[in-house]
Amino acid sequence: MEHTDLHKDRRRFMKMMAAAASAPMMGNLMQAAYAAGPFNDYRALVCLFLFGGNDSQNLVIPLGGEYAGYATGRGNLAIPTANVLPLNAGIAGRSFGLHPSMTGLANIFNTDRKLAIASNVGVLLQPTTKAQYQARTNLPPQLFSHSDMQSHWQTGRADAPAESGWGGRLADLIESANGNSQVSVSISAAGQNLLQKGNTTVAYAVSGWSSTRSAIVRRMRSYRDWDNYSPARPNPQAAFANQLAIARANVLEDQWGDMATRALNTGEFVNSTLYNVDATGNAIRDAQGNYSEKFPITPAPPMTFINSSGASQSNRLAGQLRSVANMIAARDALGVKRQIFFVSLGGFDNHGDQFKNSNNATTPILSGLHADLLKQIDQAMTWFYNWTVQQGISQNVTTFTLSDFARTLTSNGTGSDHGWGGHYFALGGAVNGGTLYGGAGGTAGDAFPTVTLGGPLDVGQGRLLPVTSVEEYGATFARWMGASSGELAGVFPNLGRFTRTNGMPFIA
Question: What is the DSSP letter of 374?
């Protein structure tokens, strides 16, 4: 951007940098087209990224006459039918179930009908046939690579490197709906990420709660330094703030000081909005060291779970969703109408040790790494959805999952290898759930692929050729957040290559 343009847009530039209180300095400042807004309602979009490639072959399981093909392909990785949690999907002639670790989400699917499954979604350059795959045409670059597929999922641009993510471009579009709020549309409880990187917006990074204390404040610590301040000891961060306030002769240096100060003040604003302070401005804590919340989250999420070894283990995802709940509860005080959140859970690259004991002749796959990861997801997502119901805002909050790719249907002995098309969740009061969406080959009503070796979409080892693109899946959520049909093309530049240019129908 030219210097004159930067000067002209200084107010927006400063606001953007304030949102980056815990983010790196932004590099590319491009003008964005903003939605008409303002919005009269509140909506929050929560992205859960499962890093490593979730084995969705054991997440959603075909039953009935299709189970035999699944079991033959999976071998020792197959979930026994007696343990599968049946789903009332309402698809004539076909039946499905969830992994036995997903008891809470299975209940939401069957009873509340607010969990939808988007089947066989993956990174595509354009609609692709099995013959084209075999000829190695129309394929995304570096297919089956973790880093590349993670990037493609987050940017929505498999055709070329992208400096912004589709969540960031969506935030650019709807930022004006948040009025004069100091807080960015995008908030991450899992560190910096590509999905939320916009051209004019930067995600505000907070931390997740731990089982012992409110870690969110420590990561959002301002220059007042609530944790370390004492009258007897000078505050180095306050001294730093004073240095920033000094007027500089150099224009860029002076503006950097201004922007950094605004960023620090944003942290102070968020802290003071979420937590009670005493007359001197210091945070109030209880005997356990937890900060006094202005918007207490009740019931609090279970921060631990019992793993497959029978031991208590920290639920890494629950703490992140607890922080998301904090920000949602404070939405009016923060002055926001739209929020995009990012949380994550890693550990899904299970080439080996997917189950604990391969010598267990009965149910070996019911224990181990993958089962424990799914327990964390089920526990945390179920709590979060129920909390939104209790607060009367379930219609306003939608959570969805992403992952690098799925896994192979075939077993490598103790695990599975890199796949392609996978199955994903959408959860919330606005979701038309209780069924599966996606299509296995374009046939009406055919909402799940044939999971069998040598099937029509098997490109090798039970890797499923996706029939729904990242763009079509993501556009569903962008539309729900307020992007018009015409604006979706700016969020997903390649959306026009695919059929469902308004996204999928699981959100009205």
Answer: H
